[in-house]
Design goal:
The complex is a heterodimer of chains A (about 800) and B (about 575).
Chain A lengths: L4 H11 L18 H19 L5 E2 L13 E2 L1 H22 L20 H17 L16 E2 L2 E2 L2 H6 L10 H15 L6 H46 L13 H15 L12 H24 L4 H25 L10 H9 L14 E4 L2 E4 L15 H8 L7 H11 L8 H22 L7 H15 L4 H25 L8 H13 L10 H14 L5 H17 L8 H14 L48 H22 L5 H18 L4 H17 L38 H78 L1
Antiparallel strand pairs in A: 1-2, 3-4, 5-6
Helix pairs in contact in A: 13-15, 14-15, 14-16, 14-17, 16-18, 17-19, 18-19, 18-20, 19-20, 19-21, 20-21, 20-22, 21-23, 22-23
Chain B lengths: L1 H17 L16 H13 L6 H22 L2 H27 L11 H26 L7 H20 L11 H12 L15 H11 L3 H22 L4 H17 L28 H16 L5 H15 L10 H10 L2 H17 L6 H8 L10 H11 L7 H15 L4 H17 L14 H6 L22 H6 L5 H7 L14 H4 L3 H9 L16 E4 L10 E4 L4
Parallel strand pairs in B: 1-2
Helix pairs in contact in B: 1-5, 2-4, 3-4, 3-5, 4-6, 5-6, 5-7, 7-9, 8-10, 9-11, 10-12, 12-14, 13-14, 14-16, 16-18, 17-18
Family (chain B): Belongs to the CBF/MAK21 family.
Organism (chain B): Babjeviella inositovora NRRL Y-12698
InterPro entries (chain B): CCAAT-binding_factor, Noc4
């Protein structure tokens, strides 16, 4: 179609019958109802409009022609216009409100600052106020005063302002009134400038006046005093003259009354009746105890199985620790001089003897104390009553210098008592350090005291009991102390392995250390922070320590015994113990070279040991194995027999502990060989035969469990398969085929959120653009108006000027002409 | 030529004593000269040819100095020792300078053009020079009782003389020359050094040798070459002389030899010859030193002779330790070591384990056949294997030997069963090693799994079942281990160490892991276990023993008391 847009429009309108003659009747056409026709007309016009305005409509381009698919049509121009209108309306509304409706600005300090305490907040406000006061910009700037002033209920908080506004209590005075009042007062006080001479004169006059006043006052007072003194006797006479009511010589009330009064008084003082805690019966106590034990045992079982998580346990135990804490210190109240319940006959005796002398309430000043059956003045012997809590072992040793050896536990108890955590802050930390010192001290005593010291065992036992008592409350500190000790021992062990020097390791204290760990900590745990390292150390000792002397055997046997004792509940197996017991027995039996090596498990070559029990030696009983004597033993038949018997006893224990093991037969096989050999030489020792029989019997029983293993009898594992999944009736429009309903929902929501977000961002952008546009428009309008105004003013001025000039010219001309 | 010169050198002092040339001090009783006197003698010596006889006096000093030093050291006066040493050092240095001068001016070389008188003088000087060298070597060899820096200085002087000789004593001026003889004498002096003390690993701590290795031997290839080249005869002759009478001396010699060989850097890893320019040399040696074949031949010969020495066990061990890496690759005919290795393998114990490495090397590279190898290997699994420090080495090899899938099931089962049995008394490190080892074997030989999972028996068979495994059977094919079960490993599931117990539990779980990397498990020790513990931190409360004890220890004889004790049968 050719022609301009207008021509085309005309042609189209005509073709649709909208212009030109409208009443041409077409033949053969039925009349349509006028209503429909009018609607048709509208539609047709709409169509024509769209046709001639191609940019009004936007249709998404389709890649593929899909039949029966509705193509969405958008009218960007129209929707844009709608948006613009809406924005405009909003803008107008906003503008109308602008500068007319206001909010409240909270200028108080720290109102929303959560870090400030109320005190800090008040202080900050006050300082700020003072600062404002001092740095007032101008003397006459009255208006500014209230801008930064702090107010409360409209009243100023500053002292100065408050007296200016005394009359405002009734809240009726409006702000303007207040202001006026203020101005008035200011006017009244407005100083008239005086000269310096005047000021000085005024000051002098004032001081003279005051001085005179004071003198007058003084005179008046003196005169009054004189008068009073003069009149005093008179007044007293008057007073004495008044007859007083006579008191009865004896109480006239009857006994009954008095009794009654007394009872009333007593009753009023008496406590109100309250239900008392019922004393628990024996059975209940026992029941509680068993319950508690059961709980502890259950926890232990869980730990043994390795089921408890370390962290949970910490929490669970924390509560435990608290109630144990109470008991611990409650005990100390009952048993004040010890702080611990030491079930030792001697200690108890002493307890009863020394009721409260040791209570360190009054260690200031010397007084006489009775300790035991001696009378001791605290000024001398017990001068250094524990006033300080030793932080190192050296300090502790120094303070122990004057303490009787046997009294050391009591001294320790005293320290613990004085530094009870509930007595002063920081005590808990001090005692925690002291715990490590106590460990050091126990080990020190074990090493350095002579075994002849008869008090030693008892002192050690008591100290250990005290340490045990501390282990609960000072759990972490002691744990760390033990762990660092373990490291130190390991270092020494290594050293002695390299140098072969037994004076470095094993010391008696090392043996004591292992026993301490065992007696304080739960050794049956699957993993334990203190026990496991010490187990490793003990195993290392058993494995790598050479068996060369009886001392070696002694130390090894002790450790093996401890090791087995550690495992008495968990019954874990230790190859090192088996190996050591075998070597120890081999070391002690006579004629070791005759034993067939093939029957042994850990020894490849047998050499005759120089310390074995000779063939003719009879086993002698009665020798006690004393730990502190470890390095003082001579090589005697007694010691040898004691060690041999101990070895046999340990093998017995080991069998008891490990009897359930499936490899029991294998474990004891070499013991059987050795015992059979021993039986040839020491048949008269009943233990040998008894043990051998026991081993054989247990082996026989163990045969029942010695059946082929079926360790792999678990359910066969399924092999993971990956089959591709096909969708029947796949629809590309369907967004997701996720079988997980919930995930699908979430996905939908996410998509929606994303969409909404995009829309919102777009809207916000449009808004800001619109605002910017509008602002520019307004500014332009403002400028235009201004320029127009200025132009108008200029014009008018120039008109007036021109007129005036004309008039001037005229006048001038006129005067000229006049002249 | 050489022996003649040697005898000359020995005769020389006597001749010198008899010489009638006048000297400032009486000749008859030589005495220790002071520093000034030595200086004066040298002054004369350098200025005029007439005072050459001073050389005699000066050379006489050495035995005197040595005696004096020994006496003073025994007396323990350090300052006096220092003074004497200073004199000796001065003396040696000046003599060295004198002969250096002579060597550089070719004043010691006989030439046909010289007159008869001159020739006599040269011969005399030559004799003195040889005597000087002999004295120096004697000094180096001897034990002064302390680590004398004088000896080190003399060593340096001697090597400098060798360097000078190489340049100036060349019989044919056109060829490059190495003074074999002088160097060989030095080597002999070093090996027979009296300062040596045999260390626990079979080497020695001789400071002279260590100095020699560090400053010269490792640096200069020509020294290494000629060390090997000429030593064989001495080694053989020493052995012939001393084998019956003085084996300690041979052991000392061997320890010196081992020390030198152990720390030297080696060339000729391949058969290729070297370019002389690439090598750092002390002297300017002939091109023979670059020949790989000659070196290797001499190397083999020397080592084979050295290995014939009566060795200490520690020497045996350390030799075997370096054999497969440092010796076999340099030999022309490594199978020559076969006898030595087979013997060592049959010794048993640690020596067998160590020889296994070299033996394997020979089997791998030189196709060595070893009858009943697995029987022998099985016999190595004795009670001590899990306790030695060489167990990592053994298991590395064992892993290789047992990796063949063609091995009979019975052999694998025997090894597994034996290892399991040994682990019942093994250290923690041993157990840690055995568990993954067995696991890997099971993975490789699934038929051996019958030892942990055997369902083939019916009720009656189960009832009558008795462990048929024979521990004493030497032949791994006949132990009937495959009918047995690994109760030992089941027991180890309750090992006291939590990690090992957990590790052992893999035998009760599906075998899903492909295999364990053995290297992660070979080098565990109690120390590493403990250091792993050290990193654990305190979290939450540590569990306490809740049982109450009245005392820690109690001897049995008071057991009638109702009190309880933690540990009974012991007293404080």
């Amino acid at each position: 179609m050719a022609g301009s847009q207008l021509k085309r429009l005309k042609a189209t309108l005509k073709a649709n019958g909208l212009t030109g003659q409208t009443n041409i009747k077409k033949k053969g056409k039925s009349k349509a109802p006028s209503d429909t026709r009018r609607d048709d007309k509208e539609k047709v016009i709409q169509g024509i409009r769209e046709e001639f305005n191609p940019f009004e409509i936007k249709v998404n381009r389709q890649k593929y022609d899909i039949p029966n698919k509705k193509v969405p049509v958008a009218r960007p121009g129209i929707s844009k216009q709608i948006g613009e209108d809406e924005r405009k309306a909003a803008w107008e509304a906003r503008k109308a409100r602008h500068n007319k409706v206001g909010g409240l600005v909270d200028r108080r300090f720290g109102e929303h600052n959560t870090d400030m305490t109320p005190e800090e907040r008040m202080l900050a406000r006050f300082t700020r106020e003072r600062q404002n006061e001092s740095s007032k910009g101008s003397m006459f700037n009255l208006e500014d005063d209230d801008t930064d002033m702090l107010t409360h209920y409209g009243k100023s908080l500053s002292a100065k302002d408050s007296d200016l506004m005394i009359s405002d209590d009734d809240d009726e005075a409006t702000f303007s009134q207040k202001k006026r009042q203020y101005h008035e007062t200011m006017d009244e006080e407005k100083p008239v400038k005086k000269t310096k001479a005047e000021v000085m004169k005024e000051v002098m006059a004032k001081s003279k006046f005051h001085k005179h006043e004071r003198q007058l006052q003084h005179e008046r007072n003196e005169a009054k005093m004189f008068d009073l003194n003069d009149e005093f006797d008179d007044v007293m006479a008057e007073l004495n003259g008044v007859p007083q009511p006579k008191k009865p010589m004896f109480s006239q009330r009857s006994d009954k009354d008095r009794e009654y009064d007394l009872q009333v008084k007593q009753l009023s003082l008496e406590k109100r009746a309250a239900p008392a805690d019922r004393t628990k019966t024996e059975e209940e106590l026992a029941d509680e105890r068993t319950k508690k034990m059961k709980e502890l045992e259950d926890a232990r079982m869980r730990r043994m199985e390795g089921l408890t998580n370390y962290d949970d346990e910490g929490e669970a135990k924390a509560a435990d620790a608290d109630d144990l804490d109470d008991e611990f210190w409650a005990g100390s109240d009952e048993n004040e001089e010890d702080g611990f319940v030491i079930r030792d006959s001697d200690a108890e005796q002493e307890d009863s003897e020394t009721e409260d002398e040791d209570r360190p309430k009054d260690f200031s000043g010397p007084n006489i104390m009775k300790i035991g059956d001696r009378v001791v003045s605290t000024g001398t012997a017990t001068k250094n009553v524990p006033t300080l809590c030793p932080a190192t072992h050296a300090e502790f040793l120094a303070s122990l210098k004057d303490v009787d050896f046997a009294k050391q536990p009591r001294y320790v108890a005293k320290i613990l008592d004085i530094y009870r955590p509930n007595l002063a802050e920081g005590n808990k930390a001090k005692i925690a350090v002291f715990g490590a010192v106590l460990i050091d001290h126990i080990l020190y005593l074990a090493d350095n005291e002579t075994s002849q010291n008869e008090a030693l065992p008892q002192v050690l036992e008591q100290l250990i009991a005290q340490l045990r008592g501390m282990s609960d409350v000072y759990n972490e500190a002691l744990c760390e102390a033990f762990r660092s000790k373990t490291d130190a021992i390991h270092v020494r062990l290594k050293e002695s392995q390299i140098s072969g020097d037994t004076s470095v390791y094993p010391l008696v204290s090392d043996l004591v250390f292992y026993s301490l760990v065992g007696s304080i900590y739960s050794t049956s745990d699957h993993y334990h922070l203190v026990v496991t390292p010490s187990l490793i150390l003990m195993a290392e000792h058993l494995e790598q320590g050479k068996v060369r002397t009886l001392q070696d055997v002694f130390a090894g046997l002790y450790i093996a015994d401890l090791f087995l004792h550690y495992q008495r509940l968990s019954k874990r197996y230790s190859p090192e113990v088996t190996s050591f017991l075998e070597r120890a027995l081999l070391f002690l039996v006579p004629d070791a070279t005759k034993i067939d090596v093939a029957g042994l498990q850990s020894v490849a070559e047998v050499s005759a040991s120089p310390f074995c029990l000779a063939k003719k030696d009879k086993v002698v009983r009665g020798e006690t194995l004393r730990l502190t004597q470890l390095y003082e033993y001579e090589v005697t038949v007694e010691l040898k027999s004691a060690l041999l018997l101990k070895t046999l006893a340990l093998i017995d224990t080991a069998c008891t502990v490990w009897r359930e093991k499936t490899a029991f037969i294998e474990i004891v096989s070499s013991f059987v060989v050795l015992l059979k050999h021993l039986l040839k030489y020491q048949a008269h020792v009943p233990e040998v035969l008894v043990l051998l029989e026991k081993l054989l019997k247990l082996s026989k029983f163990s045969q029942d469990t010695h059946k082929p293993l079926t360790l792999q009898s678990h359910r066969p594992l399924a092999i993971a398969t990956y089959v591709p999944k096909f969708e029947e009736n796949f629809n590309p429009d369907k967004k997701s085929y996720d079988p997980d309903r919930e995930r699908q929902e979430i996905g939908k929501l996410k998509a929606q959120l994303k969409k909404e977000r995009k829309i919102t961002i777009r809207e916000i952008r449009k808004d800001t653009k619109f605002t910017a546009r509008q602002q520019i428009k307004e500014k332009k309008a403002d400028n235009d108006a201004y320029h127009a105004k200025m132009k108008h003013i200029y014009n008018s001025v120039s008109t007036v000027e021109g007129a005036a000039k004309n008039e001037y010219e005229r006048e001038k001309k006129l005067r000229k002409n006049k002249r | 030529m050489a022996p003649k010169r040697k005898s000359d050198a020995r005769k020389a002092p006597k001749a010198a004593k008899k010489s009638k040339i006048a000297s400032p001090a009486p000749v008859d009783t030589p005495r220790l000269l002071s520093l000034d006197e030595v200086d004066a003698l040298f002054q004369d010596l350098t200025t005029s040819k007439l005072s050459y006889n001073n050389l005699v006096k000066l050379l006489e000093q050495y035995p005197l100095i040595k005696e004096e030093l020994l006496a003073l050291e025994a007396a323990g006066s350090e300052e006096a020792v220092e003074a004497v040493e200073t004199t000796a050092r001065h003396l040696s240095l000046n003599l060295f300078k004198f002969f250096q001068d002579k060597l550089k001016t070719a004043a010691l070389m006989l030439k046909s053009s010289q007159k008869e008188k001159e020739q006599v003088l040269i011969k005399w000087l030559r004799a003195k020079y040889d005597q000087f060298k002999g004295l120096v070597l004697e000094f180096i060899r001897s034990d002064l009782g302390y680590e004398s820096s004088l000896q080190i200085d003399l060593l340096e002087i001697y090597l400098n003389l060798i360097k000078l000789e190489s340049h100036h004593m060349n019989p044919n001026a056109s060829d490059s020359y190495f003074p074999n003889l002088s160097f060989n004498k030095l080597c002999e002096a070093l090996l027979t050094n009296e300062n040596s003390e045999i260390l626990s690993d079979g080497t020695c701590n001789n400071f002279i040798i260590l100095e020699f290795i560090e400053s010269f031997f490792n640096k200069y290839w020509d020294l290494q070459f000629y060390f090997m080249n000429d030593l064989n005869d001495s080694i053989v002759s020493w052995r012939a002389e001393n084998e019956a009478t003085n084996p300690e001396m041979l052991q000392a010699i061997y320890s010196n030899f081992l020390t030198i060989m152990k720390s030297s850097t080696m060339l000729f890893q391949t058969a290729k010859d070297f370019d002389l320019a690439e090598l750092e040399t002390l002297t300017s040696p002939p091109s023979a030193v670059t020949k790989s074949t000659q070196y290797k031949a001499q190397f083999s010969k020397t080592w084979l002779s050295a290995l014939n020495y009566p060795l200490l066990p520690s020497q045996y061990k350390s030799t075997l330790l370096i054999l497969h890496k440092r010796i076999i690759p340099f030999m022309t005919q490594p199978p020559q070591l076969m006898d030595f290795l087979t013997d060592s393998y049959n010794v048993g114990g640690v020596v067998s384990i160590l020889s296994l490495n070299s033996l394997f090397e020979l089997m791998k590279k030189y196709n060595l056949e070893y009858p009943d190898f697995y029987t022998k290997l099985y016999s190595l699994l004795d009670q001590s294997i899990l306790h030695t420090k060489y167990k990592a080495r053994f298991f590395r090899l064992c892993d290789v030997f047992l990796s063949s899938t063609h091995l009979p099931n019975a052999i694998i089962c025997s090894f597994v069963k034996k290892l399991a049995r040994l682990s019942l008394t093994a250290s923690a490190s041993g157990v840690v090693l055995v568990i993954p080892f067995v696991y890997n074997l099971f993975k490789r030989h699934p038929s051996a799994m019958i030892m942990v999972h055997n369902t083939s028996m019916d009720e009656a068979a189960l009832k009558a079942y008795k462990d048929p495994f024979s521990l004493t059977e030497a032949d791994p094919l006949k132990t009937r281990a495959n009918e047995s079960s690994l109760w030992e490993l089941e027991t180890l599931m309750q090992h006291y160490h939590p990690n090992i117990a957990t590790l052992a539990k893999i035998f009760g779980e599906p075998f899903r892991k492909q295999s364990y990397n053995m290297e992660d498990f070979l080098d565990w020790s109690y120390e590493s276990l403990l250091s792993a513990e050290r990193n654990k931190r305190y979290k939450g409360k540590v569990a306490l023993e809740f049982e109450e004890f009245d005392s820690l220890l109690r001897a049995e004889d008071v057991s009638e008391e109702p009190n309880t004790a933690y540990l009974e049968g012991w007293a404080w």
